[in-house]
User: Fold these one by one.
Assistant:
Number 1:
Amino acid sequence: MLALKEKIKEAGLKTTPQRIAVYAAMRKLGHACVDRVAEEVAVSFPSMTIATIYNVLESFVNSGLLVRRFSSNNKMYFDVNVYEHAHFYDTADNSYEDFHDPELVRMVMEYISTRKFDNFNIKSVDIQLVGNKIA
């Protein structure tokens, strides 16, 4: 619990019980949409609204604790891992899984850094491998 509070404080946010609960849920889930976080948080905060959870998640994104993930099912997902990494995105169940390949990230970033893009400033690169899990 102390580590969660410290992470939230380091991000410049107050450590409210709601923020602690939402961040704990994200640490457990890794990648999740608001609805999934709400299910997880409902155990300790059954009256916390979806709007509150969404606002807390957005404050975490704005402070660098989370990253947004865009899915093909038109739901916003959030990622607790804010370092450069790739993802497998399963279109069958709209789930994300981290894909750690530092060489791939390095190659893409190196390639992008040597290019000039007219009228476009690249802030980050999102590597997402899209497909389905094999049973």
Number 2:
Amino acid sequence: MGCASCSSGGGTPKGCKNNGTCSSGGCNKLEVFDWLANISLPEGQSTFDLVEVRFKNARKAFYRNADHLSLQTGDVIAVDTSPGWDIGVVSALGELARIQVKKKAPNLKAMECKKILHIATQEEIDKWIKGRGLERELLTQSRTFAQNLRLDMKISDVEYQADLSKATFYYTAEGRIDFRQLIKDMADRFKVRVEMRQIGSRQEAARLGGIGSCGRELCCSTWLTDFRSVSTSAARYQQLSLNPQKLAGQCGKLKCCLNYELDMYLDAIKSMPKADGKLQTEKGDAIHMKTDVFKRIIWYAYKGENGMVALTPERVAEIKKLNKDGVKPKDLADFAQVKEKVEEIGYQNVVGQDSLTRFEKSFSNNNNNKKRRPNRKPRKPNPGGPKNEKAN
């Protein structure tokens, strides 16, 4: 999606060269638009010293700019990890970072955060890129070790520390895993300090990324930062078929987008009568079939009949009130919604050149004319020479 290194040594982004206020929307994963970058601070207020730093995929952390370095969004910096050092990309700073701290870690104390060492040098960046290149082979071998030990776990991703002294393995598992022998084997084989970190299915999908059924990138890997619980009641309120193959995302859980329009459906359902119960008529009892919330149409049908009758919520409430008073209407068709007849505008070939075979007739006529043309006899040469043509 973006450049391997989005910043040069001087703090100016290479790609869009927009000085941190990137508006293309495709430079980094989980990119941040600094909408407070061009607003000056009030007099006497110091710049917020915590900086949000982005690492591989969606992992972010806050670091303290103790040396007051001149940083911009997109700068590649070296941070303290104790032990060792790591490299990340500045994703938010200043007042925007202050807002992020209040949102994600309200109890975070500035002095407890580790500090930023300096802007990364070219040697450090080369070492960091080298570690990224080793991660795929490291992931393959670690999966082989876990399979040989018959551990019921899935290692989905690995992240090398920039100084190549530590490797963090992210895995998913249903229960508790005893991976002490696995750590010993990987530490002897890879010669690095190994850390195992368990994540959920949604976090795994966010780290790996992908394309959803809507044709766009996964929300969790681009802009969604908090994972809210999604229940099947959200699908019931929206009258979706409870098909696990359609409702489940790449993480195997219910799609997060089921919650996006749920509030609108809940507000619209409040003004609709309850669908439970039957409508009693002289013709028989009508059963509720389906409801179109936004068109405000409710369909009922009689037992043994294929057709359905469309009613408005007001009509349904009226019939229920009659049934409550002991009155049965003759037929639901008397209360059916009258649809306005819309004149259908048919397609007309005004130009007359839309047919795919419009040239075949002319081509065939030309070929037939050539076949019908008789063979001409060669003209005899004129011994007297060519005659003078008359002027027009």
